[in-house]
Design goal:
Elements: H1 12-56, H2 61-76, H3 84-112
Helix pairs in contact: 2-3
């Protein structure tokens, strides 16, 4: 925090202005400090997720997570009684949902070769 320079023979009004500047700077510092403390848990979580992704070597980890949840939803969802057509439509929906992910995986393996 930089302190304002006050001349020796300053007027009462100048002293008031300097005091107000000091108070404003103090409030800014308090706000910065409080916001850092509020954001600290979020920063930790972000750091942990990045470390986890890097440690496991998983590319596009959020995409894989969505794919896993989608697959579990299709596989564990309740089907209609005797609804063979419904099961086919479920697998078609699963294929179309996972198609972008499959393309990404295929592009990733072709680049490595």
């Amino acid at each position: 925090m930089s302190l304002p320079k006050i001349p020796k023979n300053s007027s009462r009004q100048e002293m008031r202005k300097a005091l107000i500047r000091l108070r404003m700077e103090m409030h800014r510092q308090e706000i910065r400090h409080e916001s850092r403390q509020l954001l600290q848990p979020l920063q930790r979580i972000r750091g942990m997720s990045q470390t986890l992704q890097e440690g496991l070597g998983i590319k596009h980890a959020p995409l894989w997570g969505v794919a896993a949840v989608t697959l579990l939803g299709f596989l564990t969802g309740k089907g209609a009684k005797g609804g063979g057509l419904r099961n086919v439509s479920r697998w078609v929906g699963l294929g179309t949902a996972l198609l972008p992910l499959i393309k990404l995986v295929m592009q990733g393996t072709s680049r490595k070769d």
